[in-house]
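In full, the data:

***
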Amino acid sequence: MIHRLFRYVALPVLAFLSVSLFAQDDDEEKDVYELNPFQVDESGNMGYSATNTLSGTRFNSSLRDTSASVSVWTQEFINDTGLTEIDELIDYSLNTVLDTADQEGAGGNFNTFTGAQYVTQRIRTRGIDASRGLDYFKSITPDDSYRVGRYDDSRGPNGVLFGVSQVGGLINQTSLVANTYRNSGRVRYSFGSNSRDRAEFRYNKVIVEDKLALVIAGLNQDNGGWRDWVQEDKERIYGALTWRINDKITFRANYEDGWDYRTTQQPGTLVDRVLPWYDNMLAFGLETVLFTPNGGNPNNNRNRVYGVTGRDGNPNGNNPARRLTFIENDGTLYNAAGTYTTGGYDDERVRHPDGTAGLGDRNHRINDPDFLPYERAPAGPDIYRTTDLSNYAAFLDVQLTEDWFFNVQFGNQRAIIDTPQIQGPRPEFEADPNLTQGVDGPPNPYAGRFFFDGNYRRDKN
């Protein structure tokens, strides 16, 4: 479980300009409204164009007067594009990408976003790590636009000045705030290709006009994908309260509870452990490349030349291996120790059907959609990631004098992650060359069938 607590206290001195709502004669009394310096005024937004931000100074500031490189995605932009999370929003950002371990090189860490220790996928701006924010607290839970009023992207090391950003910058989510002036609501449903199925709602209720209001938002999503077994499901509920205690004091609070399920995929291509066996099977027939396991190593003069290069543990000796294998297809459980395994062309002992020896260098990978279509998900249906999450925050704004304002913020985020995963650069693509299930076992109904293999573990955080 990840449990973090953030607090922020500010006591700024701010000379605030009053705003006249309409022109009057000089001798008439003017109505003056003072805006909260800790909230963005959205009234000046024009469609996709925003005029103010908190990103530059943590105060409501004009974008044109902010020296930082800041982009804002307004509610209208989010609605028109159908964006649902920061991972999609990045396509519209400048010099920002998801970190898919592409800079790790050979032998790098391919579990950078499948491991439970990484609560959200990392992002990079201009090649440097950047941060995700939620109401300017560092975000440790997956985001979704159903509860977001706007996104602000502050690029560059200026974000370090405010304590929650890495050097690359910060993409912040501004939560929905209850409006005390009018009731409103909406229901949205979207469907599309790859089994997209998403429903969300928002409802703002004024309880006491200009004093107390509540907004509630909900989400139910059941999305598929273009690959086998890929799912992205969400169930979430969000609520926010605004209470204007008097003209000088405003209290705001919000809470979210939710559950996410999504399939995870390895970023690398498959390790070859089958092509020599496959090529010889096509050349000489299936019977030539199937063998009865006896617990010993493959015979150099026969098995290995056809791509059968090893055994799954030694079942003999003083400390015999056990490889209990469960086949989900039919519920079979057997000891695979001593059975044969296939290998790739990285083994010099294998032979191509024309007699050419294996290459004998590092692992080779398969990236041929004609041989293995990309829509096949090698990790299967049991490699996924669930997140049980909750967030809550409270904000107190106090106007001490005409020019002095006091703000206190409190935030709490929790994410419980469960993710079965494949370790390292796997899975590997293999074939089953065994005529029996285990040594001296019954006939193997899967002899000659392809399968994916890897070292699995269940990771929780």
About this structure: The two ends are 5 Å apart (CA to CA). The chain has three helices and 28 strands. The longest strand covers residues 405-422.
